[in-house]
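<instruction>
Derive structure tokens from the sequence
<data>
Labelled lines for chain and fold
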Amino acid sequence: MKKIFIISIVLLFTTQYVVGQKLSDIDKKKIKNEKDKIENLKKGSNNEVAISNSYQFIAFTYQSNGMYDEAMQYFTEALNATSNIVNLRSNNSNIGELLIKKGKLEEGQNYNLKALEYAKLTKNNQVIFNTKIKIAQTYGKLYKYTDAVTYYESSLVNAKKIGKTNKMKISLKGLSSSYSKTNEFDKLNIVNSLLSNTGLLPADLDVLINYGKPVVIIEAPQKEVQNIVYQMVNNEGFKDSIYNIFNEKQKRIIDSISVIEKAIQADLELTKKDLAKKRNVVSKLALVVEQQKNALIIFGSLLLIIIVLTIIIFVELKKNKKQNKILAKQKQEIQLQAAELNEKNQELETTLDNLKTAQSQLIQSEKMASLGKLVANIAHELNTPLGAINSSISTLDSTSNNVFEMLPKYIQTSSSQEFELLIELIKLAETNNDYISSREARKLKKNIKKQLDKLGVEDYNYVAGILVEVGVHNDFEKFVPIFKKNPIEPPMETIYNMAINSKIRQNIKTAIEKASKIIYALKNYSRSTSSEIKIEADIRKSLDSVLTIYQNQLKQGINVTKNYSDIPIVMCYPDDIGQVWTNIIHNAVQAMKGKGELDIIVGLENNNISVSFKDTGVGIPDEIKDKIFMPFFTTKPEGEGTGLGLDIVMQIIKKHNGQISFESEVGKGTTFNVLIPIN
């Protein structure tokens, strides 16, 4: 049935194409461009000629595709858009031509006559000639041969002015046909003679143009003739007789002409009525023929569709009979197989339950195996902050002893105002956390020495060194009383040791926080929760826990860039999700052989949390890309991998109704993309 439907659609579209006209895509684009151009012109310069030309271009496009109604619409728009004589003539002529093509001869001729009025205003003989020829030809189609003769003869005058043989012969050929219809055989003979003249010149047309016009012949009469004429003119009787003769002849001629005119007029009226009836009959017949033509096309197309459908149905029925026999046999086989499948389904359900249990155990085993590999690195990572704490405590003991030794000496020799200045300077030094390079330190010390020297501080070199060390670089003028103490060492050493103590305390605090963070991450990673109950979790914290555990391996040569967007808390299995991050990061570290870039991007994609891991490792070859999620498939040397890591990742992602995909290029790296549904 699908084939039947497709063939029916194709045939119907074919029929539609035959019956109607359609614009090509190129013509549609041209029309759209011209319409846009018109809109821009109307908004801008409002150039009437340009607007009219664009409308005219659209009309010609429709006309070339046989779409005369649309062409008529835009020729009319072009006519109304301008007062330019040239455009008015051309658009009147175009509309007249279209109406004549549609069989509306009288209406079309009216537009041709208007076009001639504008053509005369242009004073262009070529344009006037072309317009007169169109008018004469249309009168010929209307069987008004006398009017046709008038315009052909008039066009001959313009053809003579143009001086081109082809133009002259166009007029002569039109006159030849029209003269034969109006029985003007004398003129017809002249025209045929001119047409046979191969070397036709403009002056040769004068014989036809001046035909019938009076010729003035001037001769020198003899004296005797003059006398006779003189006597005849002065003779009253002769004049009366001559007058009576002419008067009688004139009356007879007028009466004859009147009778002839009436007879001709009557014949013309009868001819017009007869022609009108014939035109109506011809128009009706043309309409009927067109309708019959379209009906035949539609009937033929439908008949073709019916024949094709019949053949298809017959073929399909034969196929169905064969298929029914095959299906009957297959049905019996399926019934037998169904009984076997029921038994196997029960076995598979039992096996599936066992597999779920095994999968949970496998995930925990894989996690603990990964944890075992990381223990040595984590121990090393903990030793670093612990060593920093131990070293800082030793330094803190030494500086504290110095403070306890120097401070009492200073108190004994100082006033209360000097002691307050000392305390203020110590607080200023303790709050300074700015880092400066050795080059900047040298420059600062040089400037401070100059200022202290101006302030009258004798041991300005020693004082400047202490001030640079503790980070007091500006606004120290009020502390000059301290700098002028003798001995200078007690206050300055006290300031220095107190500033050092502050920095050491901060280092100890940082080291403790780092160790706590590692222990917290390890605790979260190793704990086990019920794999059947989802709980709320922050994906970013889960990632940070895994990165903390891998910190020792990552910091050796891998630069980790984290780009976390704001994301909501989700319901998930946190242990399983942590195992996903562990396996992917572990694979990335191995793929980069401990050196490279690892970009981790967290964001939202539709109704999912998107986590992307991009490494600069060796990449995955094309031939194994479809195998990496297969269980027990590994590219690692024997004894280093089980081939279950990415299989476990896939199972966990499916368990969360999520998706995992990857892109990889050998030599450039791999990107794993994980989607976890929010709801």
In short: Strands lie at 535-537, 558-564, 570-572, 596-605, 608-615, 659-665, 669-677. The longest helix spans residues 236-413. Residues 10-20, 216-220 have pLDDT under 50 and may be disordered. The CA atoms of residues 4 and 425 lie 97 Å apart.
